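Sequence of Malate synthase (Camelina sativa).
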Amino acid sequence: MELETSVYRPNVAVYDAPEGVEVRGRYDQIFAKILTREALSFVAELQREFRGHVRYAMECRREARRRYNSGGVPGFDPSTKFIRDGDWVCASVPPAVADRRVEITGPVERKMIINALNSGAKVFMADFEDALSPSWENLMRGHVNLKDAVDGSITFHDKSRNRVYKLNDQTAKLFVRPRGWHLPEAHILIDGEPATGCLVDFGIYFFHNYAKFRQTQGSGFGPFFYLPKMEHSREAKIWNSVFERAEKMAGIERGSIRATVLIETLPAVFQMNEILYELRDHSVGLNCGRWDYIFSYVKTFQSHPDRLLPDRVLVGMGQHFMRSYSDLLIRTCHRRGVHAMGGMAAQIPIRDDQKANEMALDLVRKDKLREVRAGHDGTWAAHPGLIPICVEAFTGHMGKNPNQIKSMKREDASAITEEDLLQIPRGVRTLEGLRLNTRVGIQYLAGWLTGSGSVPLYNLMEDAATAEISRVQNWQWIRYGVELDGDGLGVRVSKELFGRVVEEEMERIEKEVGKDKFKKGMYKEACKMFTKQCTAPELDDFLTLAVYNHIVAHHPINVSRL
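Predicted 3D structure, token representation.
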């Protein structure tokens, strides 16, 4: 089906919400088919049952942050050593997702969903999180799109190209990534307070799609999910309880829902066994969310001037702490009988420069060969054009085997220590590094404020993780007045230097995007917000949380109907 377009008429209608639920987003007849009374009741049940657990988990995060800011460092928990040492395994991997050698990711935008499902990848991860700007329109249209994708009716008419997109007979398996525990959904109030964003994302999608998904995609299993931004196994335990609650509501077998957890925070790397243990009936592995992992390293050690990172372009998988994290993830997953997924290839094919394109693709090829040889069972790509290279790398090594769970145990990685995982990365800091952080951070935020959570910049597809690294690294460099030792000039970062860099980079951005786009876009607003974040006395936990209110659009409701 082609997505309908409806006209908003204020105060004509409201969503049929159950008691205690108030929908403050724009009314739309199409959205009303998603926001049914029954679906909203299910979301409200999840919110009421788990909000206390979520609040406690977030307070535990804050307490851990205070400990790190007072000089502490994360490490393995002695009280859960019995879990790490035990011989338990997770539930068997569903046959439908045994082979995940290449996965493509992207926002829940209609054309993207069709192209990704048709891309030749084994899995498409449809994203409500870092690749999506969570405006009301984006979120609700995303749910409409996913429902159409699951029932197979999704089409898209690209009027500019006069082309109709629809699904092929054979498509990728669909995974959905809801938002992290920390993000609210301000357009839906439950008992007078904003709903938890991920419970809205999960609840609405699950309610409408579990039956059809299990029939057409999961071969009796599913739906399938990716779970982001966890810092501790207590957060995985909440998700496990949410899954059990959903399975009970739907009357489906316990263990039907399956999820892969992104290990993308530094504290979580010390909790990988514990996270899998809590989700052992619902797990299909872990993934190396490496860009967010770098962001988390800086954030965790924000008050440790002895742990400053070099230019972010130098913090790759060649760094000892990154390689240790990847190796330990593979060892942990395979020991527990589940997938160990590799990281993102964010490159975009460069159509107007063949030599630059060949160099970029060669970097992707080498990265994917490194992953498969290390023992990863699959990898991520941001663009359909990268899928053949990724498939070639993994198939060339794995052959017809669907994964390496049993063949690459990586017993050598059992010797990895806390010191390996925390080793300070090597490299220099430069003025160009400061400039790149600033230029990318401002442009990404400008895109996010205008509805795009996945922004192409300098031949890479950037999501919120890159903007987060740029922000926290700038903040830390300014706070400690670091020397830009890679330039050999003895220059130290200060608010004054950063101010000049911002001015110059804004001029460069205007030249690169053109005066018309610069004027129409929200670059000046993004610049103010990004600058404020980088120079704040205290570091905000998340950029997207700090600026979320700028994209919230409450609409008046027809009080007479309540």
